[in-house]
TrEMBL record, chain A:
Pfam families for this protein: ABC_tran
Keyword ATP-binding: yes
Domain ABC transporter: 2-226
Keyword Nucleotide-binding annotated: yes
Single GO MF descriptor: transmembrane transporter activity
Domain of life: Bacteria
Name assigned to this protein: Putative ABC transport system ATP-binding protein
GO cellular component terms given for this protein: plasma membrane
Keyword list, A-Z: ATP-binding, Nucleotide-binding, Transport
UniProtKB/TrEMBL annotation, chain B:
Protein name as it appears in the record: FtsX-like permease family protein
Keywords: Cell membrane, Membrane, Transmembrane, Transmembrane helix
Domain of life: Bacteria
Pfam family of the protein (one): FtsX
Amino acid sequence: MISVQSVCKTYNEGRPSALTALDGIDLEIARNALTVFKGPSGSGKTTLLSIISCMARPTSGRVLIDGRMVSGLPERFLTLERRRTFGFVFQRFNLIRGLSVLENVLLPATPLGGERRADAKRALARLEMLGIAGKAGERVEFLSGGEAQRAAIARALINDPPVLIADEPTANLDTELAHRFLDIVSGLRAEGRTVIMTSHDPRIWAADQVDRVVSMRDGRLEENEA
Amino acid sequence: MTSWLRRQRALAEYTLAALARRRIKNTGLLLIYAMVIFVVASATLFATALRKEAEVVLAEAPEVIIQNLVMGRHDLIPGDVIAEIDGIRGVASIKGRLWGYFYDRLNGANYTLMVPLDPAMAPPAGQAIIGESLPRVREMPWETAPLFLSRTPGDLVRFDIAKRLSSDSALVSTDLILLNEANFRAFFELPEDVYTDIALSIRNPREIDTIVEKIGRLLPNARLVTRDEIARTYQKLFSWREGIMVLLAGASVLAFVIFAAEKASGLSAEETREIGILKAIGWDTGDVIAMKLWEGGLVSFGAFLLGTVLAYLHVFAFDAGLFASVLKGWSVIYPDFALTPGIDGLQLTALFFLTVLPYMAATIVPIWRAATADPDQVMR
Ligand SMILES: Nc1ncnc2c1ncn2[C@@H]1O[C@H](COP(=O)(O)OP(=O)(O)O)[C@@H](O)[C@H]1O
Ligand SMILES: [Mg+2]
């Protein structure tokens, strides 16, 4: 479904601080699979994730989604592609403080001009499914780590994207919550979604629910299947 | 279209929720902004109202007034002067005017007593025509209660109210009492055939200077006041109008500087991050800018409305209390004067463009910069 071809990413290109974070990545990511990028800190996992998800552009190389070239798209169309295809659960969740859980969940739907009531209904249904409907009116700064993550998952799914992107989703969770997360993700796969995440958490690599682990080191792949 | 509206509504709702989060900071911002607009709008409304008053006064003023001077002071003028200047060519009409001030010891009020130039306008004997607001200002028990004026202790003259004058000008009508000539002379114990001054109307305004010169030769002791001179006096009085325009410009610049600087100096780290998050989860640059325009629009338009409404109340309901010192010289003559409410649409529009637009314009650049940045920073 997603095809990464010879992708390189150099930060601060042409300057003394130039740093090559990705160095010739070739990768096919299967539809409806759970793919995990593993590797030590600084190996380029987050960078690869953001290029795949149309969050950033590669310095060279191509990214195709369902055969559509997205790596050369101008910003406006890249946003459209990102909006249509991906939902995000960030490492630090990136919920907007001061707003309620429901308001946060509705954010991706806000500029789409959809029916507000229908949006809210969908959001509540998803919060219900994730077991935090009771917190819908609560401000996000009062949530625990696990609740905040589930609010972030609900937000990522509000526009019904086919692909869920999660960066180090279990980094701040205890073992039980990490397993809860994997259960939620399996549920999403059962809904037909594709899940791509990064993790340096061995509990994740070893989990049954994971279809494929992609190892990275210094911006390159050293693949091993799960 | 409905989707566009829904989108704008959703963005506006988000903006309100976002503004509510920093309630104290945003309320403070709104209040300071509203205060600047309040000062500017007060000055504008006040100047406009005064100018309107002056126009009304001037429209009613005769082209030339002849005053008798005795030892350099304005004194009564004998009526035979009228016959003397009657022969001068170009003079359309000559009328002796009777007017004066009366200090009412009973309640400490000042009245302007006057005989209308047109005898048909004069009230019948024993009656008075009074200015519209006089009953209110003088606290008369009911609107057409008789007016009792006391000139000397033990002496009380009664005038029944013939009618109330409505005038466009509060300055003219507030403390006005019109009497007929016989009553006026009796009340002030004036001999027949003297007048307060003499009013001329002139057929051709271009001849005014010549006529004034001729009269000056004829009556070396007289002071001649032309309408132009009155106008100039008013202009002097209102020369601070220009000052107000400077104030207006200055205050808007101030508004511009305070609020624009706050925004133009760059968004706060929190705001920048928030924009990054919104972009990362699928908002495009246009969505972010539209949302921030709502924010700026709500703040600046809210401040504009608040400031303008307060200014209107200040000037017209509270008699421009904060400008009292500017009015001091004036209020000796017109002790209780309320301005006629009025709004100059053009000035309000100018005020709007001078205050709201600069704010919006100044905020757009940093917002645009933040909104076009790559969103992948929020992944870190
Ligand atoms: N915006 C940036 N500017 C410069 N260097 C960056 C930037 N983002 C990441 N890097 C560098 O790129 C390398 C890969 O980072 P990242 O993709 O975050 O790795 P990981 O997620 O595996 O820890 C690191 O050395 C990091 O310091
Ligand atoms: Mg990372």
